[in-house]
């Protein structure tokens, strides 16, 4: 609800507190991973979804989100690499076409129940 109301920070605090109480609920971990991902906190999202995947390895929604977070991790690594690369190399490596494709790939997925 907090996320829908635009209170991402409040939602994160809620999930972080809830995970200190019960870190064995894969749904809680998955929801937290979604919020982390929407806030571009890819490393935290990866930790949360990996824990959820260990608890529910056959859950298709968790696996789907895990794949999405893997792509986001790759994108973040590429971004860090390009940030440290000279501009002339950046132009050769990254065009607007590929950048927009990558952005579409890492959008937060809608999970089905």
Describe the structure.
The chain is an all-alpha fold. It has a single domain, classed as Serine Threonine Protein Phosphatase 5, Tetratricopeptide repeat (Alpha Horseshoe), CATH 1.25.40.10. The chain is built from six helices and no strands. Helix 3 packs antiparallel against helix 4 (60-83). It is elongated and about 50 Å long. The two termini are 17 Å apart. InterPro entries: TPR-like_helical_dom_sf. Pfam families: TPR_19.
* CATH structural class: Mainly Alpha
In what range is the share of β-strand residues?
A: under 5%
CATH architecture type? Alpha Horseshoe
Helix content bin: over 70%
Q: How do the SSEs run, as a string of H and E?
A: HHHHHH
Pfam family, one: TPR_19
InterPro entries: TPR-like_helical_dom_sf
Quick structural overview:
This protein is mainly alpha-helical.
Give the helices and strands, then pairings.
Elements: H1 8-21, H2 26-38, H3 42-55, H4 60-83, H5 87-93, H6 96-105
Helix pairs in contact: 1-2, 2-3, 2-4, 3-4
Descriptive tags:
6 helices; 73% helix; 113 residues; Serine Threonine Protein Phosphatase 5, Tetratricopeptide repeat; mainly alpha; TPR-like_helical_dom_sf
